[in-house]
Design a protein that fits this description.
Blueprint lengths: L13 E4 L4 E4 L5 E2 L1 H9 L3 H11 L3 H15 L3 H9 L5 H7 L2 E3 L4 H7 L4 H7 L13 E5 L4 E5 L7 E3 L10 H4 L4 E5 L2 H9 L5 E3 L7 H7 L5 E5 L7 H15 L3 E4 L8 H6 L4 H9 L4
Parallel strand pairs: 8-9, 8-10, 10-11
Antiparallel strand pairs: 1-2, 2-3, 4-5, 5-6, 6-7
Bound molecules: zinc ion.
The site of zinc ion has 9 residues, from loops.
C-alpha cells in the first residue's frame, strides 16, 4: 500500500497485490493489471502501453545501438548537415550534447542484424517496418529516454515521427530541473537553439500536450515555468500554453507565457537573427 501515482494522494490508498499482479486505488477507484497501469500513467492506448512495457524489459540496448548507428551516419550525409545548419544547429558541442544522428534509410536493418539482433525484435521496436524496410528514412534522429524522435528533412513525408511507445518525460530534465526558472518549448529544434544561445534551464515537451509524467515533473518542486510555445497562425501553441499555465497554477507552480513575434517559434526566432539578449527580454515580458 502506498501513495497513488495516478492522482494527487496524501495518504496511502494505492494497493498492489503482487501475487495476482493487480493494482487498485481506493482514492481514484482505478485498478487493473500492469498494462492498464502503463496506459493510465503514460496516457497512452493499449498497443503503446504494451510497446512501452516491452521497452522496459530490454529494448534499451537496441535503441542505443540504433542511435549510435544514426550518429555515425550524420556527417556522411551532406543533406543532413545542411538541414541542421538551416535550423540553426551548427556547433559540434550541441550535436554531441543532443546525440543527433541521421537515418539515411536502407541500412539500419543490415547493421543491426549483423550485430545479432533478430529481425522480429527490430520490427517489434518499430525500427523496421512489417515489410522489412528501415522505418526512419531521411530523418534527423534525436535519442530520447526510451524512444527515438525522427524529424523528416524532406517535405513529402510527415515531419514528426516516434517509435511505438510513449514519448517519455521532459527532454533533458535531469539538467533543467535544478534551475528555479525553467523554459519549456514544444520542439527539439527550439530546445537546440536555446541551448546553443547559452540557456541551460531549457526542456522540451515534444508537442504542446504534456503527458502526466511531464506535468508531474514540472510540479515536483517550487519553480517558475516559462512556456515558450509556437506563436503559429492557428493559435494552437498559444492556446495550449494558456491551458497549461492555468493547470500549473492550480498546482502552485508560477507559470508564465512567452509571447513570440507572430508566426514564430523559438527556433525561427533565433534562426532569423534573434539573440540571447532579445530572448531574455521576451522572458522578462512573459505574462501568466
Ligand atoms: Zn489513485
Amino acid at each position: 500500500m502506498g501513495l497513488c501515482p495516478l492522482h494527487e494522494d496524501h495518504k496511502p490508498s494505492f494497493l498492489v497485490d503482487s501475487s495476482k499482479s493487480l493494482f487498485y486505488c481506493y482514492g481514484c477507484g482505478r485498478g487493473g493489471d500492469v498494462i492498464r497501469f502503463a496506459e493510465l500513467y503514460h496516457q497512452v492506448k493499449f498497443p503503446q502501453a504494451l510497446a512501452l512495457l516491452q521497452q522496459w524489459r530490454g529494448l534499451a540496448p537496441l535503441l542505443h545501438e540504433a542511435a549510435s548507428f544514426y550518429r555515425m551516419q550524420l556527417h556522411r550525409h551532406g543533406e543532413a548537415v545542411a538541414y541542421l545548419r538551416q535550423r540553426g544547429v551548427r556547433s559540434p558541442e550541441l550535436i554531441e550534447h543532443m546525440r543527433i544522428g541521421y537515418a539515411p534509410g536502407g541500412c539500419l536493418r543490415g547493421w543491426l542484424t549483423r550485430l545479432g539482433h533478430p529481425l522480429p525484435a527490430l520490427r517489434q521496436a518499430g525500427l523496421v517496418t512489417s515489410a522489412g524496410y528501415d522505418a526512419y528514412l531521411h530523418r534527423i534522429v534525436f535519442p530520447l529516454e526510451a524512444n527515438l524522435y525522427g524529424r523528416s528533412i524532406s517535405t513529402s513525408a510527415p515531419p514528426h515521427r516516434f517509435l511505438p511507445g510513449a514519448k517519455g518525460g521532459l527532454y533533458s530534465w535531469e539538467q533543467a530541473q535544478s534551475y528555479p526558472e525553467v523554459i519549456v518549448v514544444e520542439g527539439l529544434f527550439d530546445y537546440a537553439v536555446l541551448w546553443e544561445a547559452g540557456f541551460r534551464n531549457v526542456t522540451c515537451s515534444l508537442g504542446t500536450h504534456l503527458n502526466a509524467l511531464q506535468f508531474q515533473q514540472l510540479c515536483d518542486a517550487p519553480r517558475t515555468v516559462y512556456l515558450a510555445f509556437d506563436s503559429d497562425g492557428n493559435h494552437s501553441g498559444q492556446n495550449a500554453a494558456q491551458w497549461m499555465s492555468r493547470r500549473l497554477r492550480t498546482r502552485g507552480v508560477a507559470a508564465l507565457r512567452v509571447a513570440l513575434p507572430d508566426g514564430q517559434d523559438p527556433n525561427s526566432f533565433f534562426v532569423e537573427g534573434g539573440d540571447a539578449h532579445q530572448f531574455q527580454r521576451l522572458l522578462e515580458a512573459a505574462r501568466p
